[in-house]
Design a protein that fits this description.
Layout: H1 7-13, H2 20-31, H3 59-81, H4 91-99, H5 108-122, H6 134-144, H7 147-160, E1 165-172, E2 178-184, H8 189-192, E3 195-202, H9 209-212, H10 216-223, H11 229-239
Antiparallel strand pairs: 1-2, 1-3
Helix pairs in contact: 3-5, 4-5
Length: 240
């Protein structure tokens, strides 16, 4: 059996706010029909065709980013966990265990990047973009003052992340307010335990080099036309 969630389950899985690792692992195992004998993390299919995000994000970008980079994290992780006590864990359990309270084990980067990228793909969609509506829109206005101010803060997080990393929109687990953050390399808010992400933007250069070369600000500006606000709204509702 494969231990990577289908995309429709991943939205719910990654939005659980309390007892994160235990509850997520439980949700995952239920989705896999209670299987406890699993031998490989697998690469999830994209939730849309590789050319579905054009012209903003081209087919070549998705072919390289998903088919090579994301796939490499999966393959490398499988090599690392083979024959270890992590061999029967799901990818979220591996990520959380490997974080090791801020002293990451060798498996952390690959496990976290599998999780991060799956969440990233589901954050986007064809014929998306625009602005959120409903409760999410109201929360953005409440916590940022306006959608434009959210965009300014989210863009700044992506632009000022030195080197590789991620920008996040999350629900603070204590206050239930929305907040923007950035993390380096493979780190994410889940491992820090203070917030539940509902949106992410990959600012590793391989996310945009084919389309924008080294112009990260141009990539960030274009990202808003790809955001699947319905998916983000579902994550927001699950995080409350």
């Amino acid at each position: 059996f494969a231990r990577s969630l289908p995309y429709h389950s991943f939205v719910t899985m990654m939005s659980i706010r309390s007892a994160f690792c235990r509850q997520v692992a439980s949700t995952y195992r239920r989705s896999m029909h209670q299987s406890s004998v699993c031998k490989a993390v697998t690469l999830p299919d994209l939730p849309y065709a590789k050319n579905a995000l054009e012209p903003t994000m081209c087919e070549e970008t998705l072919d390289i980013h998903h088919g090579r980079h994301h796939a490499a994290y999966v393959n490398n992780l499988n090599g690392q966990i083979k024959g270890t006590n992590m061999d029967s864990m799901d990818v979220v359990e591996i990520m959380m265990k490997s974080w090791n309270n801020g002293s990451p084990a060798a498996t952390f980067n690959n496990a976290a990047q599998v999780v991060n990228h799956t969440f990233f793909w589901e954050s986007m969609g064809p014929n998306c973009g625009g602005k959120p509506t409903g409760d999410l829109a109201a929360a953005i206005d409440r916590d940022f003052g306006s959608f434009e101010e959210f965009q300014a803060q989210f863009s700044a997080a992506g632009a000022t992340q030195f080197g590789s990393g991620w920008a996040w929109l999350s629900v603070n687990n204590a206050t239930k307010k929305l907040e923007v953050s950035k993390t380096p390399n493979a780190e994410n808010p889940w491992v820090h335990g203070q917030a539940t992400p509902i949106l992410t933007m990959d600012v590793w250069e391989h996310a945009y080099y084919v389309d924008q070369r080294n112009k990260r600000p141009d990539y960030i500006a274009s990202f808003y036309s790809l955001i699947n606000w319905d998916a983000v709204a579902a994550r927001y509702a699950a995080a409350l």
